[in-house]
Amino acid sequence: MATNPKKYSLNRKIYQSRSHESLTNFTDTMLRVKDPQRSSKAFSVSQSPSSYLIMWPVKYYEMLGMKQINKIENPDAKFDLYFLAYDSPKSLSGDQHWTGRQGVLELTHNYGTEKDESFKVANGNSDPGKGFGHICISVDAIQAACQRIEEAGYKFQKKLTDGRMRHIAFALDPDGYWVEIIAFNPVDKTEDVKETDPGTYRFNHSMIRVKDHEKSLKFYQDIMGMSLIRTSENESNGFNLYFLAYPGDDAVPKDSANGVSPTAEREGLLELTWNYGTEKDANFKYHNGNDEPQGFGHICIAVDDLDAACKRFEEKGVNWKKKLTDGRMKNIAFVLDPDGYWIEVIQNEKMKRTSNW
To answer: How far is Cα of residue 245 from the mean position of the Cα atoms in its chain?
Structure first.
């Protein structure tokens, strides 16, 4: 499908100006992986999946167009962190420090899991371990994008042709995490398109399930400073979806084309899924991903002033998993949301340089 360079240039300028206006970014989502070489590194997006399969092992996320933009090795603690994001000239936040971006995927590898045949991460979509749902990638031509994933030999939880919802698909990554595929172009206009450009893709959102939507919405808006930019009510199926982001509803279209979310071209969205009635069950609890069985780890926000932000959180009476003053790592904190999910808080190094990462 032909792309419009002026369109992507304009979107990137708008995104970067928003980043300066907003003091906080929803920077990354962390997932534990069994084998990082199987999950992270990959091939040039210009190569075809078939030639790629012949040449070297499948490397999933860069097959989806992402690029490894940083790696933090922690041999003393026996884990490494891999940071991936869209970084092409058509991406929204390329050429920025990773803490100043939105839409970063952090893969955590604990040494030795790749050699343990019995090790398996919890993808968050079945018990025990149900809580985190998926990450979502928005693409230019969804039919061609899904065909490309299938030709590369990957499995789907839901293909485009499955069920009634013919405008979304769910691919499975090597660890079984769900990757939702949505379109930022009308699906009826891309039915006959045979090519897809991964350089235009977006890491659109991450989804977590919440017990009480009112408590969670209040927390993420009043405490974390996010804005509710879209709500999808599904009364017949007994659930609602709430999409939050920084810096709010600035320039978000109100109308949706066929099969296109009005927020599909954005990055850095958090989707809260509320299943009706869970808030009334005193014993109901979602899994935070950090208790056993482990999988999803946390979401991460980057702030303009880490000390000031943590002081404000303290004044707001948040529950802490780790304060800045706890432990050896004085450059990160972890806040707990109403469901016990971990929210990492770090310094946006684009605004104030404090750490060499």
So the answer is: 12
Complete DSSP assignment for 105-169? EEEEEETTGGG-TT---B-SSSSSS--EEEEEEEES-HHHHHHHHHHTT--EEE-TTSSS-TT-E
Closest CA relative to residue 245, chosen from 266, 214, 218: 266
Main-chain phi, psi angles of 85, to 5 degrees: -160, 170
Count CB neighbours of 351 within 10 A.
19
**Averaged confidence pLDDT in the chain:** 87
* Secondary structure (3-state) at 353: coil
Give burial (CB, 10 Å; 0-12/13-18/19+) of 258. exposed
- Among the options 180, 265, 344, 349, which is catalytic? 180
Q: Residue 34 gets which letter from DSSP?
A: S
Do 39 and 107 touch, CB atoms closer than 8 A? yes
For residue range 87-113, list pLDDT tens digits in order. 999 999 888 899 999 999 999 999 999
Q: Which residues contact 21 (CB under 8 A, 6 or more apart)?
A: 247, 250
Say whether 235 is catalytic. no
User: pLDDT tens digits, residue range 305-314?
Assistant: 999 999 999 9
